[in-house]
Design goal:
Radius of gyration: 25 Å
Largest sheet: 5 strands, parallel
Structural class: alpha/beta
Distance between the termini: 73 Å
Number of strands: 5
Order of helices and strands: HHHHHEHEHHEHEHEH
Number of helices: 11
Strand content: 5-15%
Strand order of the largest sheet: 2-3-4-1-5
Shape: elongated
């Protein structure tokens, strides 16, 4: 399709030409916001260059936002969690400066691991999802999964002769977030398959895990001591370990809310 080119277009003809051109060039943000930006340009007496720059930046910003949304969706997070929503005052075990340094994602760039260790309700999953979301927003490919779900998927893939393909798929993402590691005992076969995924990613791509068990208690999950030691080694070498403690701030906040009416009365 060729757009008509002529001087002295009416406002209506110009709007129609802009709309058609934006459709052909796949510029939905410019198409949707052109009139508003044009009106603002007249009001602010922008130069032609300034007006063009504003249009192009609008499209670029919106494309970046849509890419971030797609990466966050592809990660498979079970719910939305952000660092802004985390109450560091409620859990002094977690150092805010350390977490905000992690949010820069330099550790992912260096292919380093992260371990979040602590009891239920201490913020491990919140932190895991929030940091994974930060990574996705900064352009990294992220995948979230529960430990048991990952092992079950690997077992099924092995049965269907698709194990190498599945391990390679988990090996490609920049950050693999494994939640609830240590909640359930894994048989030797499942533990070995998980070890293969960790080995595939070792020093190539980052792994972040959340566990309610200290490393000393992982022998309940990985019953083979040598395999357990090898997995701990994979997940801690050159990595960051954050111990979130034993006091559930989730339970504490629930109790505090329950006490508010009584205090008010």
């Amino acid at each position: 399709m060729t757009l008509p080119r002529q001087r002295g277009l009416t406002e209506q003809a110009a709007d129609a030409a802009i709309d058609t051109a934006c459709r052909l060039l796949r510029l939905p943000s410019i198409r949707n916001e052109f009139n508003e930006i044009a009106d603002r340009a007249i009001k602010d007496q922008m130069t032609y260059r300034g007006f063009l720059a504003q249009l192009l930046m609008t499209e670029c910003d919106d494309r970046a936002r849509r890419r971030s949304e797609r990466r966050i969706k592809a990660a498979g997070f079970p719910r939305e969690k952000s660092l802004r929503a985390f109450d560091f005052d409620a859990n002094p075990n977690i150092d805010a400066a350390t977490v905000h340094t992690l949010a820069s994602c330099e550790w992912i760039k260096k292919s380093q691991p992260l371990c979040l260790i602590g009891d239920s309700g201490t913020g491990k999953s919140h932190m895991l999802i929030a940091l994974g979301t930060e990574a996705a927003m900064k352009g990294y490919r992220v995948r979230y999964t529960l430990a048991t779900k990952l092992v079950n998927e690997l077992v099924e893939a092995a049965d269907e002769k698709q194990l190498n393909k599945t391990i390679a798929r988990y090996g490609r993402v920049d950050l693999l977030c494994i939640d609830e590691l240590g909640y359930m005992e894994l048989d030797r076969h499942g533990a070995e398959l998980l070890f293969q995924v960790l080995t595939e990613r070792e020093e190539k791509n980052s792994v972040a895990i959340a566990s309610n068990e200290s490393f000393g208690g992982w022998t309940k999950t990985f019953t083979d001591p040598r395999l357990c030691a090898a997995i701990v080694d994979r997940l801690t070498f050159n990595g960051t370990i954050i111990e979130t403690g034993t006091d559930s701030y989730r339970l504490a906040s629930t109790r505090a809310r329950a006490e508010e009416p009584a205090q008010a009365g």
